């Protein structure tokens, strides 16, 4: 039997992480690098990306770009492949939540949410898949949400985008898994990130969310390390089209 620890070894792999300038995206990039991958971080904030690349070291690179710019996707994919070669792994962590109530949703807020949270993961994956198919190995990881299946106040656009991620994950698996490319999603509970600052700035609300979990606390960034490594490695070779809820049991109660 092979050493089970080797299942999680990413030595020789190249990973691309969008939204890598902060939050769960930054944490995912650091985790994949620690497991041996060369990592290309993608975001619009070049200064924060440069800090990430510096922290990773020689196996880290930064590409400043906008994943929403559909006309620029081919060029962005080429820039991502430039430092280390075409990626074997793509983690789509870029996201936005306008928190507009249903009666107050604006066309711009709706379009920005769907473009970044749902359209960008598909079109960037589509651009990166040919190289993965050529190698017969690939990992696509998107970010679902509690709102993939639950309705929260002020979350109609965000929830629609994350509900779409659930089906996008299944559909990408159906299309590309015969070629050795798995597609899965992580569904985080409440983690302290820029996207959830409004939640954590309200101690009573944060405490209610913690009480809703089975474990009794909200997430810490370290809680994402194992799940992201599992879905990006050989350990999950027979897992595809799935949403792994990393929520302390929030959706179980």
UniProtKB/TrEMBL annotation:
Protein name: SDR family oxidoreductase
Coiled-coil positions: none
Taxonomic source organism: Thalassococcus arenae
UniProt-listed Pfam families: adh_short_C2
Residue span(s) of domain Ketoreductase: 13-189
Superkingdom of origin organism: Bacteria
InterPro entries registered for this protein in UniProt: KR_dom, Sc_DH/Rdtase_CS, SDR_fam
């Amino acid at each position: 039997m092979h050493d089970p620890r080797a299942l999680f070894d990413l030595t020789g792999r190249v990973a691309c992480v969008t939204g890598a300038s902060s939050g769960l995206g930054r944490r995912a990039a650091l985790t994949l690098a620690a497991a041996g991958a060369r990592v290309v971080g993608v975001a619009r904030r070049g200064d924060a990306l440069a800090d990430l690349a510096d922290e990773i070291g020689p196996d880290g690179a930064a590409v400043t770009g906008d994943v929403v710019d559909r006309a620029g996707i081919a060029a962005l994919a080429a820039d991502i492949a430039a430092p280390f070669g075409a990626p074997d792994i793509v983690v789509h962590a870029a996201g936005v939540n306008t928190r507009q109530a249903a009666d107050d949703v604006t066309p711009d807020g709706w379009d920005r949410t769907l473009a970044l949270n749902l359209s960008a993961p598909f079109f960037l994956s589509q651009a990166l898949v040919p190289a993965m198919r050529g190698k017969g190995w690939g990992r696509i990881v998107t970010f679902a949400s509690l709102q993939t299946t639950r309705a929260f106040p002020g979350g109609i656009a965000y929830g629609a985008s994350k509900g779409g991620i659930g089906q996008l994950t299944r559909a990408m698996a159906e299309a590309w898994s015969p070629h050795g490319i798995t597609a899965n999603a992580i569904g985080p509970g409440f983690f302290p990130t820029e996207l959830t600052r409004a939640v954590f700035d309200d101690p009573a609300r944060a405490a209610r969310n913690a009480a809703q979990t089975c474990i009794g606390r909200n997430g810490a960034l370290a809680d994402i390390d194992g799940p992201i490594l599992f879905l990006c490695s050989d350990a999950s070779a027979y897992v595809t089209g799935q949403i792994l809820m990393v929520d302390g049991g929030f959706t179980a109660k």
